[in-house]
TrEMBL record:
Protein's name in the database: Acyl-coenzyme A thioesterase 4-like
GO MF annotation, one: fatty acyl-CoA hydrolase activity
UniProt xrefs under PANTHER family: ACYL-COA THIOESTERASE 17-RELATED, ACYL-COENZYME A THIOESTERASE-RELATED
Sequence ranges assigned to domain Acyl-CoA thioester hydrolase/bile acid-CoA amino acid N-acetyltransferase in this UniProt record: 19-147
Residues of the BAAT/Acyl-CoA thioester hydrolase C-terminal domain: 269-370
Gene3D superfamilies recorded: Acyl-CoA thioester hydrolase/BAAT N-terminal domain, alpha/beta hydrolase
Family note: Belongs to the C/M/P thioester hydrolase family.
Organism the protein comes from: Haplochromis burtoni
Length: 379
């Protein structure tokens, strides 16, 4: 492609939170020109992730990812954020990779480039490129490491005078403390504490419960009962009198085949003690836990329950525009064995679920933590 004025690629905004949309525009192309838009991210694990879409410029020589159709690639159709949510490891990468932000104080950097043609585009020098910064932590958000009275985790506080509602953010059965969802929630106006709660195997159930109690009273709520609960892809079966780690070990004997109800405390027992609104978010193609079936068994206080079930979505429902992972490497909590775990989901449907559920989670939190006149926000 030779022309007097070179193509220009712009990203607006080039710096944004990860749950915000951007616009990618290519100008100064010849009319009717086939091009490929390509995104590339080098992860903190030193792996490369990419997405791409095939486009044809309009009569003005313009391609707008927001307005135009992708005719092929890792996504098709009119998908403004397809260059992010359809990302996958580049060919030849290690098996079972998962992309998650570890250091939330730095952005996720995504290089977006435009290449001539639709075939073998990687072998061609880009016509133009630009860099997008995707942040989990907004300017002014404070990150504080917590290790007090045995409670460990990370606290995120929004900018401004407050007061702010406070959230306790807990993940599932993986190893390690994850902060990116808490950082994003703080960026949306909530004090959020990401709790390290899957601790020593030698803790008794009573001591483990005390850990949560100290966390709730000392760090977060000052004795307040929770005002609302959001459960994402959660399974509420738990053997009575066991620690969380022991419970995972027991359940792992059954979940590969079926869920055993005998001698297991199910959610009907738990929900009787919950007196606040609860939002259950699940994927109908969850291949990891029977989350949809569990959510259907919740009973006793229907007026407090809201359910979201997404056809085609899997287990790992992340913040919007995050890549979809149908199967990834996983370290079994108790045995430390490394396996490839099937999470389920289909990329387009899963991506739509992530975007829709995040919007509804924020609305749910806003309704019950900011708009409820009976709630006095406290840190």
């Amino acid at each position: 492609m030779t022309q007097a004025v070179p193509p220009i690629l712009s990203i607006t905004p080039s710096r944004a939170l990860v749950d915000e949309k951007f616009q990618v525009l290519v100008e100064n192309l010849p009319p009717g020109c086939p091009v490929t838009l390509h995104s590339l991210h080098h992860s903190e694990d030193k792996d490369d992730w990419e997405a791409y879409g095939h486009y044809v410029s309009d009569h003005r020589g313009v391609v707008s990812v927001t307005e135009d159709l992708s005719f092929g690639g890792t996504y098709t159709g009119k998908e403004p954020m397809g260059l992010l949510w359809s990302m996958r490891p580049v060919p030849g990468s290690r098996e079972g990779l998962r992309l998650r932000k570890i250091n939330v104080c730095t952005p996720m950097l995504v290089n977006i480039s435009v290449h001539s043609g639709h075939e073998d585009f990687r072998d061609r020098t880009p016509l133009a490129s630009a860099l997008a910064e995707r942040w989990y932590m907004a300017p002014g958000v404070k990150r504080i490491d917590i290790n007090k009275q045995g409670v460990q985790g990370t606290l995120f506080i929004p900018p401004g005078p407050g007061p702010f509602p406070t959230l306790l953010d807990m993940w599932g059965g993986g190893v390690g403390l994850l902060e990116y969802r808490s950082a994003l929630l703080a960026s949306r106006g909530y004090v959020s504490f990401s709790l390290d709660y899957l601790r020593s195997e030698h803790l008794s159930a009573d001591v483990e419960f005390k850990y949560f109690e100290v966390c709730a009273i000392y760090i977060l709520m000052s004795g307040l009962w929770p005002r609302c609960i959001v459960c994402i892809s959660s399974n509420h079966y738990h053997p009575p009198g066991t620690t969380l780690k022991a419970g995972f070990k027991i359940l792992s004997k059954y979940v590969l085949l079926t869920v055993c109800h005998e001698n297991l405390m199910i959610i009907q027992i738990i929900v009787g003690r919950i007196n606040c609104p609860m939002l259950l978010v699940n994927g109908c193609d969850d291949q990891n836990w029977p989350t949809v079936e569990t959510a259907e068994e919740v009973s006793g206080k229907e007026h407090l329950l809201s359910r979201l079930a997404y056809p085609g979505a899997g287990h790992l429902i992340e913040p919007p525009f995050s890549p979809h992972f149908r199967a990834t490497k996983f370290i079994i909590l108790n045995s430390k064995k490394k396996v490839i775990l099937l999470w389920g989901g289909h990329t387009k449907a899963h991506s739509d679920a992530q975007e829709d559920s995040w919007r509804k989670i924020l609305s749910f939190l806003q309704l019950h933590l900011y708009h409820n006149p009976s709630v006095k926000a406290k840190l």
